[in-house]
Write a structure and sequence with these properties.
It is built from 11 helices and 5 strands. By secondary structure, it is α+β, with helices and mostly antiparallel strands.
Length: about 375
Protein backbone atom coordinates (compact mmCIF):
# COMPACT_ATOMS: atom_id res chain seq x y z
CA UNK A 1 0.00 0.00 0.00
CA UNK A 2 1.29 3.46 -0.82
CA UNK A 3 2.89 5.61 1.85
CA UNK A 4 2.88 9.36 2.19
CA UNK A 5 6.06 11.08 0.99
CA UNK A 6 6.46 12.57 4.46
CA UNK A 7 6.69 9.12 6.04
CA UNK A 8 8.99 7.95 3.24
CA UNK A 9 11.22 10.98 3.80
CA UNK A 10 11.30 10.39 7.56
CA UNK A 11 12.28 6.77 7.02
CA UNK A 12 15.01 7.78 4.58
CA UNK A 13 16.34 10.37 7.03
CA UNK A 14 16.40 7.74 9.78
CA UNK A 15 18.31 5.35 7.51
CA UNK A 16 20.75 8.12 6.61
CA UNK A 17 21.32 8.91 10.29
CA UNK A 18 22.07 5.24 10.98
CA UNK A 19 24.60 5.11 8.12
CA UNK A 20 26.23 8.36 9.26
CA UNK A 21 26.58 7.05 12.82
CA UNK A 22 28.37 3.97 11.49
CA UNK A 23 30.78 6.11 9.48
CA UNK A 24 31.39 8.40 12.46
CA UNK A 25 32.08 5.42 14.72
CA UNK A 26 34.79 4.20 12.35
CA UNK A 27 36.29 7.68 11.90
CA UNK A 28 36.33 8.42 15.64
CA UNK A 29 37.83 5.02 16.48
CA UNK A 30 40.56 5.64 13.89
CA UNK A 31 41.20 9.12 15.32
CA UNK A 32 41.58 7.73 18.84
CA UNK A 33 43.97 5.06 17.55
CA UNK A 34 46.11 7.65 15.72
CA UNK A 35 46.28 9.86 18.81
CA UNK A 36 47.29 6.94 21.01
CA UNK A 37 49.99 5.80 18.58
CA UNK A 38 51.26 9.39 18.27
CA UNK A 39 51.42 9.64 22.06
CA UNK A 40 53.24 6.29 22.41
CA UNK A 41 55.91 7.12 19.81
CA UNK A 42 56.24 10.82 20.64
CA UNK A 43 59.38 12.85 21.02
CA UNK A 44 59.97 13.25 24.79
CA UNK A 45 60.31 17.02 24.29
CA UNK A 46 56.97 17.33 22.45
CA UNK A 47 54.73 18.86 25.12
CA UNK A 48 51.69 18.91 22.83
CA UNK A 49 51.81 15.18 22.11
CA UNK A 50 52.66 14.33 25.68
CA UNK A 51 50.00 16.36 27.46
CA UNK A 52 47.40 17.68 24.99
CA UNK A 53 46.86 14.58 22.83
CA UNK A 54 45.65 12.46 25.80
CA UNK A 55 43.00 15.09 26.56
CA UNK A 56 41.74 15.03 22.98
CA UNK A 57 41.88 11.22 22.94
CA UNK A 58 39.58 11.19 25.98
CA UNK A 59 37.22 13.75 24.40
CA UNK A 60 37.14 11.80 21.14
CA UNK A 61 36.44 8.56 23.04
CA UNK A 62 33.52 10.25 24.80
CA UNK A 63 32.17 11.36 21.41
CA UNK A 64 32.56 7.78 20.13
CA UNK A 65 30.47 6.45 23.02
CA UNK A 66 27.82 9.14 22.51
CA UNK A 67 27.56 8.35 18.80
CA UNK A 68 27.32 4.64 19.59
CA UNK A 69 24.70 4.92 22.37
CA UNK A 70 22.79 7.76 20.65
CA UNK A 71 21.54 9.58 23.79
CA UNK A 72 21.54 13.00 22.09
CA UNK A 73 20.52 14.18 18.59
CA UNK A 74 23.04 13.49 15.86
CA UNK A 75 23.20 17.16 14.83
CA UNK A 76 24.60 18.19 18.23
CA UNK A 77 27.14 15.38 18.09
CA UNK A 78 28.23 16.50 14.62
CA UNK A 79 28.79 20.05 15.89
CA UNK A 80 30.77 18.65 18.85
CA UNK A 81 32.89 16.51 16.53
CA UNK A 82 33.66 19.46 14.23
CA UNK A 83 34.58 21.61 17.22
CA UNK A 84 36.77 18.97 18.89
CA UNK A 85 38.63 17.86 15.77
CA UNK A 86 38.98 21.45 14.59
CA UNK A 87 40.53 22.46 17.91
CA UNK A 88 42.93 19.49 17.73
CA UNK A 89 44.07 20.14 14.14
CA UNK A 90 44.42 23.91 14.56
CA UNK A 91 46.07 23.50 17.98
CA UNK A 92 48.69 21.15 16.57
CA UNK A 93 49.21 23.54 13.63
CA UNK A 94 49.74 26.45 16.05
CA UNK A 95 52.20 24.37 18.10
CA UNK A 96 54.43 23.74 15.09
CA UNK A 97 54.30 27.36 13.94
CA UNK A 98 54.77 29.08 17.29
CA UNK A 99 56.60 26.64 19.58
CA UNK A 100 58.37 23.83 17.75
CA UNK A 101 60.97 25.86 15.92
CA UNK A 102 61.82 27.79 12.71
CA UNK A 103 59.45 27.33 9.78
CA UNK A 104 62.06 25.76 7.50
CA UNK A 105 62.56 22.98 10.06
CA UNK A 106 58.82 22.37 10.44
CA UNK A 107 57.87 22.50 6.77
CA UNK A 108 58.09 18.76 6.13
CA UNK A 109 55.92 17.93 9.15
CA UNK A 110 53.39 20.64 8.26
CA UNK A 111 53.17 19.58 4.63
CA UNK A 112 53.15 15.88 5.39
CA UNK A 113 50.35 15.92 7.94
CA UNK A 114 48.86 19.01 9.46
CA UNK A 115 47.78 21.00 6.39
CA UNK A 116 46.36 17.82 4.92
CA UNK A 117 44.45 17.40 8.18
CA UNK A 118 42.99 20.90 7.67
CA UNK A 119 41.95 19.92 4.14
CA UNK A 120 40.40 16.65 5.32
CA UNK A 121 38.48 18.51 8.00
CA UNK A 122 37.19 21.03 5.43
CA UNK A 123 35.80 18.10 3.43
CA UNK A 124 34.46 16.48 6.58
CA UNK A 125 32.41 19.48 7.68
CA UNK A 126 30.39 19.23 4.46
CA UNK A 127 29.67 15.60 5.28
CA UNK A 128 28.64 16.33 8.86
CA UNK A 129 26.86 19.65 8.26
CA UNK A 130 24.64 21.01 5.50
CA UNK A 131 26.07 23.27 2.81
CA UNK A 132 25.43 26.59 4.56
CA UNK A 133 27.04 25.57 7.84
CA UNK A 134 29.70 23.64 5.93
CA UNK A 135 30.75 26.84 4.13
CA UNK A 136 30.80 28.71 7.44
CA UNK A 137 32.83 26.05 9.28
CA UNK A 138 35.18 25.51 6.32
CA UNK A 139 35.80 29.24 6.00
CA UNK A 140 36.57 29.50 9.72
CA UNK A 141 39.05 26.61 9.43
CA UNK A 142 40.75 28.17 6.40
CA UNK A 143 40.92 31.62 7.99
CA UNK A 144 42.25 30.19 11.28
CA UNK A 145 44.90 28.22 9.39
CA UNK A 146 45.96 31.35 7.51
CA UNK A 147 46.13 33.45 10.69
CA UNK A 148 48.16 30.77 12.52
CA UNK A 149 50.52 30.51 9.54
CA UNK A 150 51.04 34.27 9.14
CA UNK A 151 51.55 34.89 12.86
CA UNK A 152 53.93 31.94 13.00
CA UNK A 153 55.98 33.03 9.97
CA UNK A 154 56.34 36.72 10.93
CA UNK A 155 58.97 36.14 13.67
CA UNK A 156 61.02 34.04 11.22
CA UNK A 157 60.75 36.78 8.61
CA UNK A 158 61.98 39.41 11.07
CA UNK A 159 64.87 37.18 12.06
CA UNK A 160 65.56 36.35 8.41
CA UNK A 161 65.11 32.62 9.11
CA UNK A 162 62.34 31.92 6.54
CA UNK A 163 63.34 30.97 3.00
CA UNK A 164 61.41 32.18 -0.02
CA UNK A 165 60.75 28.57 -1.02
CA UNK A 166 59.03 27.88 2.32
CA UNK A 167 56.90 31.01 2.04
CA UNK A 168 55.80 30.13 -1.51
CA UNK A 169 54.98 26.61 -0.39
CA UNK A 170 52.78 27.90 2.45
CA UNK A 171 51.06 30.26 0.02
CA UNK A 172 50.36 27.43 -2.43
CA UNK A 173 49.02 25.27 0.39
CA UNK A 174 46.46 27.90 1.35
CA UNK A 175 45.48 28.54 -2.27
CA UNK A 176 44.90 24.80 -2.56
CA UNK A 177 42.80 24.80 0.65
CA UNK A 178 40.74 27.72 -0.67
CA UNK A 179 40.14 25.90 -3.97
CA UNK A 180 39.22 22.76 -2.04
CA UNK A 181 36.67 24.74 -0.02
CA UNK A 182 35.13 26.20 -3.19
CA UNK A 183 35.04 22.82 -4.94
CA UNK A 184 33.50 20.93 -2.02
CA UNK A 185 30.99 23.74 -1.51
CA UNK A 186 29.95 23.49 -5.16
CA UNK A 187 29.59 19.71 -4.92
CA UNK A 188 27.53 20.07 -1.73
CA UNK A 189 25.32 22.61 -3.50
CA UNK A 190 24.70 20.19 -6.37
CA UNK A 191 23.99 17.44 -3.84
CA UNK A 192 21.41 19.60 -2.07
CA UNK A 193 19.77 20.58 -5.37
CA UNK A 194 19.54 16.92 -6.37
CA UNK A 195 18.01 16.00 -3.02
CA UNK A 196 15.41 18.77 -3.34
CA UNK A 197 14.62 17.69 -6.90
CA UNK A 198 14.16 14.09 -5.79
CA UNK A 199 11.87 15.17 -2.94
CA UNK A 200 9.78 17.31 -5.31
CA UNK A 201 9.54 14.44 -7.79
CA UNK A 202 8.49 12.08 -5.01
CA UNK A 203 5.82 14.51 -3.78
CA UNK A 204 4.48 15.10 -7.30
CA UNK A 205 4.38 11.37 -7.98
CA UNK A 206 2.60 10.82 -4.65
CA UNK A 207 -0.12 13.35 -5.39
CA UNK A 208 -0.48 12.12 -8.97
CA UNK A 209 -1.22 8.61 -7.71
CA UNK A 210 -3.05 9.29 -4.42
CA UNK A 211 -6.63 10.21 -3.63
CA UNK A 212 -6.64 13.44 -1.62
CA UNK A 213 -9.62 12.64 0.60
CA UNK A 214 -8.69 9.11 1.67
CA UNK A 215 -4.93 8.96 0.97
CA UNK A 216 -5.58 5.69 -0.87
CA UNK A 217 -4.22 4.95 -4.31
CA UNK A 218 -6.29 6.66 -6.99
CA UNK A 219 -7.65 5.22 -10.22
CA UNK A 220 -4.44 5.93 -12.14
CA UNK A 221 -2.26 4.15 -9.58
CA UNK A 222 -4.61 1.16 -9.38
CA UNK A 223 -4.74 0.85 -13.16
CA UNK A 224 -0.93 0.73 -13.30
CA UNK A 225 -0.75 -1.70 -10.37
CA UNK A 226 -3.28 -4.08 -11.91
CA UNK A 227 -1.53 -4.16 -15.28
CA UNK A 228 1.75 -5.03 -13.55
CA UNK A 229 0.11 -7.72 -11.41
CA UNK A 230 -1.70 -9.22 -14.40
CA UNK A 231 1.60 -9.62 -16.22
CA UNK A 232 3.17 -11.17 -13.11
CA UNK A 233 0.23 -13.52 -12.55
CA UNK A 234 0.38 -14.81 -16.13
CA UNK A 235 4.14 -15.19 -16.06
CA UNK A 236 4.16 -17.12 -12.78
CA UNK A 237 0.85 -18.93 -13.16
CA UNK A 238 -0.57 -17.31 -10.02
CA UNK A 239 -4.13 -16.14 -9.34
CA UNK A 240 -5.24 -12.52 -9.18
CA UNK A 241 -8.60 -11.27 -7.94
CA UNK A 242 -10.31 -7.93 -7.61
CA UNK A 243 -13.10 -6.69 -5.36
CA UNK A 244 -15.29 -3.77 -6.43
CA UNK A 245 -17.00 -2.03 -3.50
CA UNK A 246 -19.86 0.45 -3.70
CA UNK A 247 -21.41 2.13 -0.66
CA UNK A 248 -25.17 1.62 -0.44
CA UNK A 249 -27.44 4.67 -0.65
CA UNK A 250 -24.52 7.07 -0.40
CA UNK A 251 -26.45 9.90 -2.08
CA UNK A 252 -29.05 9.60 0.67
CA UNK A 253 -26.29 10.00 3.29
CA UNK A 254 -25.05 13.19 1.60
CA UNK A 255 -28.56 14.58 1.17
CA UNK A 256 -29.64 13.77 4.73
CA UNK A 257 -26.50 14.41 6.77
CA UNK A 258 -24.46 16.73 4.56
CA UNK A 259 -21.26 16.38 2.57
CA UNK A 260 -19.05 16.69 5.65
CA UNK A 261 -20.54 13.49 7.08
CA UNK A 262 -20.32 11.95 3.61
CA UNK A 263 -16.60 12.69 3.54
CA UNK A 264 -16.18 11.11 6.98
CA UNK A 265 -17.97 7.99 5.75
CA UNK A 266 -15.66 7.78 2.72
CA UNK A 267 -12.55 8.23 4.89
CA UNK A 268 -13.54 5.69 7.53
CA UNK A 269 -14.59 3.19 4.86
CA UNK A 270 -11.11 3.50 3.36
CA UNK A 271 -9.49 2.85 6.75
CA UNK A 272 -11.67 -0.19 7.47
CA UNK A 273 -11.00 -1.69 4.06
CA UNK A 274 -7.23 -1.22 4.47
CA UNK A 275 -7.30 -2.87 7.90
CA UNK A 276 -8.88 -6.01 6.46
CA UNK A 277 -6.49 -6.72 3.57
CA UNK A 278 -2.87 -7.89 3.37
CA UNK A 279 0.17 -5.66 2.97
CA UNK A 280 0.59 -7.00 -0.56
CA UNK A 281 -2.95 -5.97 -1.54
CA UNK A 282 -3.86 -2.53 -2.82
CA UNK A 283 -7.00 -0.56 -1.97
CA UNK A 284 -7.91 2.34 -4.24
CA UNK A 285 -10.68 4.88 -4.40
CA UNK A 286 -12.15 4.02 -7.77
CA UNK A 287 -14.87 6.64 -7.99
CA UNK A 288 -17.05 8.83 -5.77
CA UNK A 289 -18.24 6.14 -3.36
CA UNK A 290 -16.60 3.20 -5.14
CA UNK A 291 -13.47 1.38 -4.03
CA UNK A 292 -11.42 -1.28 -5.79
CA UNK A 293 -9.25 -3.85 -4.04
CA UNK A 294 -6.56 -5.79 -5.91
CA UNK A 295 -5.49 -9.09 -4.35
CA UNK A 296 -2.38 -10.58 -6.02
CA UNK A 297 -1.99 -14.30 -5.39
CA UNK A 298 -5.58 -14.81 -4.15
CA UNK A 299 -8.05 -16.98 -6.04
CA UNK A 300 -11.80 -16.37 -6.01
CA UNK A 301 -12.65 -18.28 -2.77
CA UNK A 302 -10.00 -16.43 -0.71
CA UNK A 303 -10.97 -13.10 -2.28
CA UNK A 304 -14.61 -13.79 -1.44
CA UNK A 305 -13.70 -14.36 2.21
CA UNK A 306 -11.77 -11.10 2.22
CA UNK A 307 -14.77 -9.28 0.73
CA UNK A 308 -17.10 -10.78 3.34
CA UNK A 309 -14.73 -9.75 6.13
CA UNK A 310 -14.67 -6.20 4.78
CA UNK A 311 -18.47 -6.16 4.41
CA UNK A 312 -19.12 -7.30 7.97
CA UNK A 313 -16.52 -4.91 9.41
CA UNK A 314 -18.04 -2.02 7.51
CA UNK A 315 -21.59 -2.69 8.68
CA UNK A 316 -20.65 -3.64 12.25
CA UNK A 317 -20.55 -0.11 13.71
CA UNK A 318 -21.92 3.23 12.48
CA UNK A 319 -19.68 5.87 10.97
CA UNK A 320 -20.29 9.43 12.18
CA UNK A 321 -23.60 8.22 13.58
CA UNK A 322 -24.72 6.74 10.27
CA UNK A 323 -25.37 3.07 9.52
CA UNK A 324 -23.22 2.22 6.52
CA UNK A 325 -23.31 -0.83 4.29
CA UNK A 326 -21.73 -1.69 0.97
CA UNK A 327 -22.14 -4.16 -1.86
CA UNK A 328 -19.17 -6.16 -3.14
CA UNK A 329 -18.48 -7.73 -6.53
CA UNK A 330 -15.60 -10.22 -6.73
CA UNK A 331 -13.88 -11.50 -9.88
CA UNK A 332 -10.79 -13.59 -10.61
CA UNK A 333 -8.50 -13.12 -13.60
CA UNK A 334 -9.07 -15.63 -16.41
CA UNK A 335 -6.40 -16.68 -18.91
CA UNK A 336 -7.89 -14.66 -21.76
CA UNK A 337 -8.95 -11.63 -19.67
CA UNK A 338 -7.86 -8.12 -20.38
CA UNK A 339 -8.08 -5.53 -17.63
CA UNK A 340 -11.41 -4.22 -18.90
CA UNK A 341 -12.96 -7.70 -18.95
CA UNK A 342 -11.81 -8.42 -15.39
CA UNK A 343 -13.20 -5.15 -14.04
CA UNK A 344 -16.40 -5.46 -16.06
CA UNK A 345 -17.11 -8.87 -14.52
CA UNK A 346 -16.59 -7.51 -10.99
CA UNK A 347 -18.78 -4.52 -11.86
CA UNK A 348 -21.62 -6.72 -13.11
CA UNK A 349 -21.52 -8.83 -9.96
CA UNK A 350 -21.53 -5.77 -7.76
CA UNK A 351 -24.59 -4.41 -9.59
CA UNK A 352 -26.25 -7.79 -9.30
CA UNK A 353 -25.75 -7.46 -5.55
CA UNK A 354 -27.34 -4.01 -5.69
CA UNK A 355 -30.30 -5.38 -7.59
CA UNK A 356 -30.83 -8.26 -5.18
CA UNK A 357 -30.89 -6.35 -1.91
CA UNK A 358 -27.50 -4.65 -1.28
CA UNK A 359 -25.13 -5.25 1.67
CA UNK A 360 -23.83 -8.49 0.22
CA UNK A 361 -20.93 -10.12 -1.60
CA UNK A 362 -21.48 -11.52 -5.09
CA UNK A 363 -18.72 -13.71 -6.46
CA UNK A 364 -20.53 -16.52 -8.26
CA UNK A 365 -20.47 -16.89 -12.01
CA UNK A 366 -23.94 -17.12 -13.59
CA UNK A 367 -24.70 -18.50 -17.07
CA UNK A 368 -25.56 -15.05 -18.37
CA UNK A 369 -22.99 -13.17 -16.30
CA UNK A 370 -21.25 -11.85 -19.38
CA UNK A 371 -24.49 -10.48 -20.80
CA UNK A 372 -25.94 -8.86 -17.68
CA UNK A 373 -26.06 -5.08 -17.77
CA UNK A 374 -27.21 -3.15 -14.73
CA UNK A 375 -27.76 0.62 -14.74
Amino acid sequence: MPQEPASDARQELENLAIRKRRVYLGALALAVLIMLLSWLFRDPDDYFLGHIYPVFAILTSILLVLVWRAPVPLRWLEIAMVTTLGALVLGRLAWHHHVAGPIDQQLLVLAGGHYWAVGALIVGVFVMLDRRYGVLAGSILLLASAVITVTGVLPDLRADRASGEALMYLLRVHVFLALLLVLVSAVAGLRDQLQRALVRAEVLDHWASTDVLTDLANRRAMDQFLRQQMATARRRGQPLSVILVDLDHFKRINDTHGHNVGDQVIQETARRLERNVRESDLVARWGGEEFLIALPGEALPAATRTAERCRSTLSATPIAGVEVTATFGVAELKPDDGLDELLRRADRRMYRGKATGRNRVIAQQTPDDANQCFP
